[in-house]
Design a protein that fits this description.
Elements (H helix, E strand, L loop, with lengths): L1 E4 L5 E4 L3 E5 L17 E9 L4 E7 L3 E8 L1 E6 L4 E5 L2 E6 L4 E6 L7 E8 L9 E6 L10 E5 L14 E2 L5 E7 L4 E5 L5 E9 L1 E3 L3 E3 L4 E5 L3 E5 L4 E8 L1
């Protein structure tokens, strides 16, 4: 079953320094029928203005993944990490028993654009940790590139880059699909797929047209076919 969630159906809020769209219940937005998709609990599409950001705040019992699409994001936490994540990089933070962190845009002139996803972990009481990983879609066009995974055998083979590790039985893939190209994805029975169009447009199974920032939640389906006429940058998450 494929259920399309259009970009305009998201809850969008403008705080001046932050422009954000929520795909699931988050903050002041609560919809009891839209709180999660498997372990995927939050999917926020954020733009943060120069020299602005989120001050130190606490998280617990959550796996937090941030994919920077444009600009830079500075991360600092109570474990002593202080890093900058750029386009082509992803960060994973295990909140576990508790961690405080801040996320700010260090640029004085350019906004940062990012996707932040929260997943429930496969167990509670984990030791907090932080990790960054790089990926290169330009050198691996028209294929699924794993950038975050909880599966020991999953790797970004061939380019020397390793996906970030997450405490959940899922894999987050990105793909740069050229005009006229297609991709398929297969998974075991009983699992879920979440597809998000970062840029461009794509057709799912020949019937569902997804444009920029549209998403599809897929259940009870072991194979998915995606095709683009104009080109697309895609995210696919294989979920339990």
């Amino acid at each position: 079953m494929i259920k399309v969630h259009g970009a305009l159906a998201r809850i969008t809020r403008n705080f001046g320094w932050l422009y954000t769209s929520h795909s699931f219940s988050f903050g002041g937005y609560f919809d009891p029928g839209n709180t999660e998709f498997g372990p995927l609990r939050v999917f926020n599409d954020d733009r943060v203005q120069p020299l602005k950001g989120f001050d130190f705040h606490k998280h617990e019992e959550m796996e937090i993944v941030t994919v920077v699409l444009r600009g830079e994001l500075q991360h600092e936490d109570t474990l002593g990490n202080k890093t900058v994540t750029r386009a082509g990089e992803v960060q994973r933070m295990t909140a576990g028993t508790g961690i405080e962190h801040s996320e700010t845009n260090p640029s004085a002139s350019e906004e940062v654009e990012l996707l932040q996803l929260w997943f429930t972990p496969d167990e509670e009481g984990l030791t907090p940790s932080y990790e960054q990983a790089a990926y290169d879609l330009d050198s691996r066009k028209n294929e699924w590139v794993p950038v975050v995974t909880g599966r020991p055998g999953e790797s970004a083979a061939g380019d020397g880059m390793k996906p970030a590790r997450i405490h959940q039985d899922l894999t987050l893939y990105l793909a740069e699909l050229e005009p006229g190209q297609a991709l398929t994805f297969s998974q075991k029975p009983g699992r879920r797929m979440y597809v998000f169009v970062i840029e461009g447009s794509a057709t799912v199974d020949g019937a569902y047209k997804l444009s920029r920032r549209d998403a599809a939640r897929i259940t009870e389906q072991e194979r998915l076919d995606l095709h683009t006429e104009t080109g697309a940058r895609l995210m696919l998450i294989d979920l339990p």
